[in-house]
Amino acid sequence: MPNKIEFNKDYPIIKKSDEYYKIALDLIPAQTQTLAKGPGQNIKGVAPKYLQHGKGSHVWDVDGNEYIDYTMGVGPLSLGYAYDKVDEAIKKQLEDGITFSLMHPLEVEVAELIHKVVPNAESVRYSKVGADVTSAAVRVARAFTGRNKVLCCGYHGWHDWYIAVTDRNKGIPQAVQDLSFTFNYNDIQSVIDSMDEDTACVILEPYVFDEPKDNFLQKLREVCTKNGTLLIFDEMWSGFRIAVGGAQEYFGVKADLATFSKAVANGMPISILTGRKDIMSLLDKDVFFFSTFGGEALSLAAAKATIHELIDKKVPQYLAKQGRKLKDEYNSIAQKLGMNYTKCLGFDCRTIMTFDGEKSGSNPLEMKSLVQQEMIKRGILWGGFHNVSFSHSDEDVKYTLKVYEEVLPILKKAVDEKNVKGYLRGEPIETVFRKTSNFNVKPKKK
Ligand SMILES: Cc1ncc(COP(=O)(O)O)c(C=O)c1O
């Protein structure tokens, strides 16, 4: 019998998952199209590998096991799986058509909506995935300023200009690598030190998990303006989540350009570039940014329905409320157990669990893997984050906290015995190059 969302006797059977995986090993390099969903991020041998369907905050894997999901498609499911209002809008549009031979009115309707809710959206363009619009933003910033260099901080997608700063930069020409640099979040001096007269733009996630300190975003705004450098907010995670108008609304700081995706269409593939009219007007002719599926209507219909729902139901406030309960209670359980090496951090709408190797004397990836393994046994699909959605009910949260009360003592015991690895029933999860803060991979040499 498949596992349910309860204190199951045993770990889920993942036979069908493993059958698919066996074929993928031979056929699909890296097996996954999204690193964060891939086998390296889930304890091999225990975690399910393929999901079949979802409803609200719950998902079912291909073997029929049910879970509360805290990954939520790595961000997009802001309302929840198979959310009626959005699905109805998609189905209605499906009857009329998906992709057309001329422009579709939804391109205009959604642009008007975004213009209303996103602070810097004097102009709006669409594409499909996050990397499309971060790369378009960088290109248009280079064209507008006549400069070449890019400073970044955070993750911005798979394209050359960004991956150049990471340790997975094979295949990127040296000439491109020579133009991208990083700086430290919350360290305005590191921005100033990296900037020069050839710096076209500074692109960053306005926050990842750390709060901006000492007016960092305001100072960044000033430093960029002073240097004639464009400020780009990558709001893939913050957009339509921390507030409907994203971090610009929440922190009251306007970027010259901003990029969005994930939460805006509840799972449909669409990304958005917004910005100052004088900059965005370069996209009329001088800067080329077009693609076949840019105005695909199902995703636009989903975006329209999602944005209305986010506003009508005050979704950002709901996410903050549920997220705060999870964060506060996780920390309180850990504190009561004297586990100073694990914490839940971040803005309430999306939080992360951290595991400190030095304080615990254990391997952080093994600790995270053990928690994941035990959460999965109890019907919770957990990747170390609380990506809450509008469908995460009070009951989901209550059950999750009961599970933490049982799982954290298991971690504590394993750490106390200095034997976390011994408790693992599979291969631990692997690192990605992405870190939560200050991953200054390639600072500019002075
Ligand atoms: C902050 C940020 N920027 C850009 C991207 C790239 O988006 P995509 O994977 O849709 O290309 C991501 C993806 O996770 C992201 O988190």
Describe this structure in words.
The chain is 39% helix and 14% strand. The chain has 16 helices and 14 strands. The protein has helices at residues 15-27, 84-96, 105-117, 130-145, 160-163, 174-177, 188-194, 216-227, 246-251, 277-280, 297-312, 315-336, 357-360, 364-377, 394-416, 420-423; strands at residues 51-55, 58-61, 66-69, 123-127, 149-153, 180-182, 199-204, 230-234, 257-260, 271-275, 342-345, 350-355, 380-381, 385-387. It has a seven-stranded mixed beta sheet, with helices on both faces. The radius of gyration is 22 Å and the shape is globular. The termini are far apart. The site of pyridoxal-5'-phosphate has 13 residues, from α4. Pyridoxal-5'-phosphate is lined by residues 129-131, 134, 154-157, 205, 234, 236-237, 261.
How much of the sequence is in beta strands? 5-15%
Radius of gyration (Å): 22 Å
What form results from the Cα inertia axes?
globular
Spatial order of the strands in the main sheet?
A: 4-10-9-8-7-5-6
The end-to-end span amounts to 62 Å
Compact overview of the structure:
By secondary structure, the protein is an alpha/beta fold. The protein has helices at 15-27, 84-96, 105-117, 130-145, 160-163, 174-177, 188-194, 216-227, 246-251, 277-280, 297-312, 315-336, 357-360, 364-377, 394-416, 420-423, and strands at 51-55, 58-61, 66-69, 123-127, 149-153, 180-182, 199-204, 230-234, 257-260, 271-275, 342-345, 350-355, 380-381, 385-387.
Keyword list:
446 residues, alpha/beta, 16 helices, 14 strands, globular, binds pyridoxal-5'-phosphate
